[in-house]
Amino acid sequence: MTQGLDANKAAQLEAGLARVRERFCLSLEDRIDELYELLENLGDEALCERACVEIRAHAHKLHGIAASVGFARMGTLAAQLEHQIDLLIDAPQPQGTTIVQDLLNVLLDEMERGLDAK
Q: Rounded CA gap, 6 and 95, in Å?
C-alpha cells in the first residue's frame, strides 16, 4: 500500500517539475530579449552600472532555477556571470566590462539552445 502512495507522490512531483520546466522554457525568450537590451547598455557609460546590476539580478535568478529544471550548463554560466559582476562591482578601480560581455554572450547562446529544447 505504501509503495502505491510513494509512486503516486513521485508521479505528482514529476508532473509538478515538468510544469515548472515548461514555464521556465516559456520565459526564456523574454529573458533573452531583456538580456540583449542590457548587453547593449553595457557599451553606454551612463547606463553601464545599472545594466550590470540588472544583468546580475537576471543571472542570479537563472543560477537558482536553471539546473533544477534540467539546464545545468545554463545554471553554471549564470553563476559565473553573477560572480564576475560581483568582482567588477567590488573592484577598487574601474574595470572594463569585456569579460562580462563575453560571459553574457556565452550565456545567451546557451539560453537560445534552451529555446530549441522546448
A: 54
